[in-house]
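Input/output pair, single chain:
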Amino acid sequence: MNQIPEYKEIERKGYKVTLLSGGTDGQDGPTDAAGALAYPSQVTWARESGFNAEHYLHNNDSYNFYKKFGEGKDHIITGLTGTNVMDLNILLVIPPNDYLMN
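Output:
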């Protein structure tokens, strides 16, 4: 995401952006992950940690990226929930100087 100028501009202006993507059943396909959190600085931090995020992206392998990067802190693993209502995608955008950030 950091290669896209719009994301750099959003961060430069002080916006905080986070995406949660997950399944209510507690798994994504054949994996044990319900989903993950994504944010613009994640790719930069991955590079600085020695991870090649583009490699995982080109191999459609977000599972292993999130499992390995940051010791899995952005990977959402809940276990099976016994329900399958829907997949959730929640985008949180906090504007600069918002009261939530103080």
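The mean pLDDT is 85. Strands lie at 16-23, 35-38, 75-76, 87-94.
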